[in-house]
Design goal:
Helices cover about 45% and strands about 20% of the residues. It is built from eight helices and seven strands; from the N terminus they run αααβαβαβαβαβαββ.
């Protein structure tokens, strides 16, 4: 199997099951025009996030890593009336693009984009004693994943679903001797999940337009 095949299948699935979506497609176009890297989740992965949020009946969603707001649009669309998405972004430029994309998609009123280092923003949320989140999506700098995991758990409740993207690293996650800081951080995060008695977790390997990687899904009990 090849990357060309994986990408072709993603296109087939997108065309057949997702259909045309101007808001989604234009958000990617505006992000590219603004110079943002093309690292957002794929359309099928965005639909998966939407489905997970709906299945979890999420009323409060936390996203760590906004980029141009592509995944945030999918998550915000899954919210019921009165629901809230809090999404954290390091770059003010990226956050500006994301706010515009969210507004144009008609979900800007239910999405709060917070800028600054995610670890600091997460600590602030904990100090404020915010209501726990029903779903957390982690998709930011991989070296920060262990800290993001700990904070996500602290901001969760029994029944919260935590989803962490890019945890397979093209299979490198199995290499205990890796010197790659991202791989080491992901391994540490998965070890934390394994050691946490309140959590039941698994990892799903994925292939598609974004290559070979995987998602960690963890349910807080």
């Amino acid at each position: 199997m090849s990357q060309d095949t994986w990408s072709a299948v993603d296109r087939y699935v997108t065309d057949l099951l997702l259909g045309g979506d101007a808001d989604i497609e234009q958000s990617l176009e505006r992000s590219a025009a603004a110079g943002l890297p093309p690292i957002a989740v794929s359309a099928p992965q965005g639909r998966l996030l939407w489905m997970l949020a709906r299945l979890a009946r999420a009323r409060r969603i936390l996203e760590i890593g906004t980029l141009g707001g592509y995944s945030a649009i999918w998550l915000a669309r899954a919210l019921p009336p009165g629901g809230t998405l809090v999404t954290l972004e390091l770059s003010e430029h990226h956050a500006t693009v994301a706010r515009d994309n969210l507004a144009r998609a008609g979900v800007g009123d239910r999405a709060q984009v917070i800028t600054g280092p995610a670890a600091e923003s997460l600590a602030a949320l904990q100090r404020e004693g915010v209501e726990p989140f029903d779903l957390v999506f982690i998709d930011a700098d991989k070296t920060g994943y262990p800290d993001y995991w700990r904070a996500s758990l602290a901001l969760s409740r029994p029944g919260t679903l935590i989803v962490a993207d890019n945890v397979v690293r093209e299979g490198q996650v199995t290499d205990a001797s890796s010197s790659d800081e991202a791989v080491r951080a992901v391994r540490e995060t998965l070890a934390l999940a394994a050691a946490e008695s309140r959590v039941r977790a698994t990892v799903l390997q994925t292939v598609g337009a974004k290559g070979y990687d995987g998602l960690c899904l963890a349910l807080v009990e």
